[in-house]
């Protein structure tokens, strides 16, 4: 049900955010406050129920002073045209039901509806999945690739931050069969906000500052997500994915290595990227030698990418960057909302980089 607020004569939608008090939830609030099609924003929390949002995040004083409400999915579904779920894994699958989806659209920023196979989810996430009856209708929301499928869905699985950067980087190479699919290695680096706002020893200043660490080698849960999406292009793909934690607030850099197939040259690779992305507003193809930097996309919905063909070893090396909280989470979620509701795709997310 659409609400009765108006902006410049247009009807606006009611939006709910479960997990508004987390990092991705708070960024959603920032974006949606300025979205022309959005009226009321209902804020859901876990630990701050009854407190004003601007008491939890004092940056929002006089901007969003609404009260944090209990994260009751049924109540949110009754009152909102779309509910964003910015919650830890395992929570969304318990509360998204067919009844809920009859009342509202759901955009889940977590992983519960990203993998199509429940066993794979339970194996990699080490937690039970409760949403079997709705999982099959979820659409993987990588906007530039899945735009047509996104339009009609009422359950949207927003991709992970590492996965957004990795899949968009590899898609043209795999789709055009330019690389040996058994040779893919993804080296990824993330800022600390990728771990969320929750208190965790590994995210403490002294644990991260002036230090870099590798983690999840061979076991990180984004591996099956990347493999599943790339395997949809035809052949089963298994690959190596290795994340690193670097001492910065935000940003993701992936450096991806793959052997090129016989006869593949630089122009073939360039043509492949141009074929899929030259008209994509939020993907910037940089020339060889113009290498991506996380600061160049800070605060934006942009993915910057550039490749080098290292002829000595017959390998293509693709470097890409995104802002993990934006294209890697919240602004991509709003891009998905725009597509789902038929709004202008850039509405509310057309940011200029905040370089410093
Ligand atoms: N951080 C990132 O860069 C990215 C995160 N994601 C995914 O988005 C989701 C949210 O991440 P992020 O914002 O970083 O996480 P945070 O830890 O910052 O926030 C988690 C939110 O969930 C709420 N919450 C915690 N436990 C429960 C519960 N049992 N029931 C209801 N609500 C609960 C918290 O409420 P309260 O604050 O009130 O305790 C908080 O609002 C996760 O699934 C994450 O994997 C995806 C891409 C990128
Ligand atoms: C730095 C850091 O800890 N990053 C997180 C990934 C955050 C994320 O994208 O979570 P999703 O699983 O919802 O995609 C991690 O490696 O677990």
From TrEMBL:
It is an enzyme of class 1 (oxidoreductase). The chain crosses the membrane at residues 12-32. The keyword Amino-acid biosynthesis applies. The keyword RNA-binding does not apply. Keywords: Amino-acid biosynthesis, Arginine biosynthesis, Cytoplasm, Membrane, NADP, Oxidoreductase, Transmembrane, Transmembrane helix. This is N-acetyl-gamma-glutamyl-phosphate reductase. It is found in: Cytoplasm. Its main location: cytoplasm. It holds the Pfam family Semialdhyde_dh. GO terms for biological process: L-arginine biosynthetic process. It comes from the Bacteria. GO terms for cellular component: cytoplasm. Residues 14-153 form the Semialdehyde dehydrogenase NAD-binding domain. Belongs to the NAGSA dehydrogenase family. Type 1 subfamily. It catalyses: N-acetyl-L-glutamate 5-semialdehyde + phosphate + NADP(+) = N-acetyl-L-glutamyl 5-phosphate + NADPH + H(+). Catalyzes the NADPH-dependent reduction of N-acetyl-5-glutamyl phosphate to yield N-acetyl-L-glutamate 5-semialdehyde. HAMAP family: ArgC_type1. Pathway: Amino-acid biosynthesis; L-arginine biosynthesis; N(2)-acetyl-L-ornithine from L-glutamate: step 3/4. It comes from Anaerofustis stercorihominis DSM 17244. CDD domains: AGPR_1_C, AGPR_1_N.
């Amino acid at each position: 049900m659409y609400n009765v607020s108006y902006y410049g004569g247009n009807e606006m939608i009611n939006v709910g955010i479960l997990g508004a008090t987390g990092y991705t939830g708070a960024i959603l609030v920032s974006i949606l406050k300025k979205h022309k099609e959005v009226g009321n924003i209902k804020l859901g929390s876990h630990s701050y129920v009854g407190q004003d949002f601007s008491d939890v995040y004092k940056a929002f004083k006089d901007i969003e002073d609404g009260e944090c409400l209990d994260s009751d999915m049924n109540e949110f579904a009754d009152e909102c045209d779309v509910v964003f779920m910015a919650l830890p894994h395992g929570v969304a699958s318990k509360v998204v039901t067919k009844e809920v989806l009859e009342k509202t659209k759901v955009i889940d920023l977590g992983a519960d509806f990203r993998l199509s196979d429940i066993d794979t989810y339970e194996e990699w996430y080490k937690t039970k999945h409760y949403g079997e009856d709705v999982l099959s209708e979820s659409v993987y929301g990588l906007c530039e690739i899945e735009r047509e499928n996104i339009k009609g869905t009422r359950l949207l699985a927003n991709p992970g931050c590492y996965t957004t950067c990795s899949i968009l980087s590899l898609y043209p190479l795999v789709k055009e069969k330019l690389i040996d699919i058994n040779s893919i290695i993804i080296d990824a680096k993330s800022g600390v906000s990728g771990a969320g706002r929750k208190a965790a020893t590994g995210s403490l200043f002294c644990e991260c500052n002036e230090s870099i660490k590798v983690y999840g080698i061979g076991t990180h849960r984004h591996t099956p997500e990347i493999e599943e999406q790339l395997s949809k292009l035809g052949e089963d793909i298994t690959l190596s994915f290795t994340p690193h934690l670097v001492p910065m607030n935000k940003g993701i850099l992936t450096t991806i290595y793959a052997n090129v197939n016989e006869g593949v040259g630089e122009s073939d690779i360039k043509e492949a990227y141009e074929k899929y992305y030259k008209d994509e507003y939020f993907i910037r193809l940089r020339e060889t030698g113009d290498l991506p930097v996380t600061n160049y996309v800070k605060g934006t919905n942009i993915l910057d990418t550039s490749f080098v063909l290292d002829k000595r070893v017959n390998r293509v090396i693709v470097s890409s960057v995104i802002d993990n909280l934006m294209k890697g989470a919240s602004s991509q979620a709003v891009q998905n909302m725009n597509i789902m509701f038929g709004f202008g795709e850039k509405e509310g997310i057309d940011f200029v980089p905040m370089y410093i």
